[in-house]
Amino acid sequence: MQSNPFLERLGRFRGIMEQQELDAFFVTAPENRYYLSGFEAEDLLLTESSGYLLITRTAQYLLTDPRYEEAAKKEAAGFDLAVYSTGIREILPDLFSKLQCKRLGIEEHFITVKRLREVEEALAKVSSAGVVIATDDLVERLRIIKDEDEIEKIRKSVRLTEKALQTLWNALAPGMTEKDAAWLIEKSIREGGAQAVSFPPIVASGPNAALPHAVPEDREIGAGESVILDLGSKVDGYCSDMTRTWVSGSPSPKLREIYKTVREAQLAAQDKIRAGIDSVSVDSAARDLIMDAGYGDNFGHGLGHGVGLAVHEKPGLRRVEPTLLAENMIVTVEPGIYLPGFGGVRLENMVRVTETGCELLTREELFYDW
What's the domain range around 161? Predict the structure, then answer.
């Protein structure tokens, strides 16, 4: 009989609840809801949830509305279902009473003030001793390490994203607009079988490439310009994220210099990655090289981030929030240099942390070797 990975995760999460001295936990973040239950519905807005999880030491409930009832029955095996029609306040008091909730954990990083008040009021109705405990990233402690099935889904997403990038790479030419290039990315990813893009593609040409998160415009790509291409797909619930910088024609000496610096910084950071090393030191391996080249003020973001159910998740490779890397963490390595009025370069790989180094998930392709 095949094991249920969601119930296995739930068992490990209950160990975390015990450590935190929580007798119940209220899950609001959609990625965490899926990770623990298998319920696939998406939330379009922070204020429009397709459901919540209420977990105790011995019980687990999926709270949802009639639109998702049948899907919930099918997808969230092992969860009891509680259906509301006018909002969670109609069912929370009875559930809190039935489950004898007293110390209730909530996700402080993903709950609106309105929803928090509803939870607090419902708990107060049934228990004078009830208390809501703000917690941060408890489920994410499990998500940060990927299992074999998750890694395989991420590989699948990476392959699809690489194929879409190659399609665009072959089509790029001076005169193409950023918006047309971005649409070709989305079209290729969808036609390749993805659920969706994992984020709106970035196509930033010329001076727009000095903006790390530029929004594609009607601007036409000019000769001799760099074009930052940042894209990702979502496949079987899991994301990918990669960036290459395309150059139209012959690059200027300055563009060659910053491209070479960014590439060397990326390779230096990748060489540093292994289980047991501090994430800040990985960021420093790239950042120090860029600073020594005279461009320290032009690299303003972290080196990388985790990728999984969300395109941005733990751990961060940056100068704050140090994390000891562990085997089967999936992270990006994406140094960049951005020069206002001139342009910029960013190069991004995805890697899996191993005991002795890192495994490249994105292929060593579409780099220039000037």
Answer: 148-360
pLDDT in tens, 171-217: 999 999 999 999 999 999 999 999 999 999 999 999 999 999 999 99
What value does the mean pLDDT take over residues 28-36?
A: 98
Instruction: Please state, in angstroms and rounded to a whole number, the distance separating the CA atoms of residues 14 and 56.
Output: 8
Please determine, for residue 339, whether its predicted confidence score (pLDDT) is greater than 80: yes
> Which of 100, 127, 143 is the C-terminal boundary of a domain?
143
SS3 214: coil
Please tell me whether residue 266 adopts helix, strand or coil conformation: helix
| Residue 157 one-letter amino acid | S
Q: Of all helices (H) and strands (E), which one includes residue 142?
A: helix 140-143
Q: What is the DSSP letter of 340?
A: T
| d(C-alpha 251, C-alpha 40), whole Å | 46
Is position 323 within any domain? yes
DSSP state of 268: H
- Mean pLDDT across the stretch 16-38? 97
Percent of the chain with pLDDT over 70: 99
Interior/surface letters 298-319, b for 16+ CB within 10 angstroms, e for the rest: bbeebbbbbbbbbbebbbbbbe
Confidence at residue 279, expressed as pLDDT on a 0 to 100 scale: 97
Phi and psi (nearest 5°) for 294?
95, 10
Domain count, the chain: 2
Q: Is residue 266 part of a domain?
A: yes
Verdict on whether the full-model pTM lies above 0.90: yes
What lies within 8 Å, CB to CB, of 315 at 6+ separation is: 144, 279, 305, 306, 321, 323, 325, 329, 331
- State how far the alpha carbon of 186 is from the alpha carbons of 2, 130, 200, 201, 221, in Å: 36, 48, 8, 7, 19
39-72 tens-digit pLDDT: 999 998 888 899 999 999 999 999 999 999 999 9
Please provide the DSSP assignment of 58-80 as one string: S-EEEEE-GGGHHHHHHHSTT-E
87: Cα separation from own chain's centroid: 29
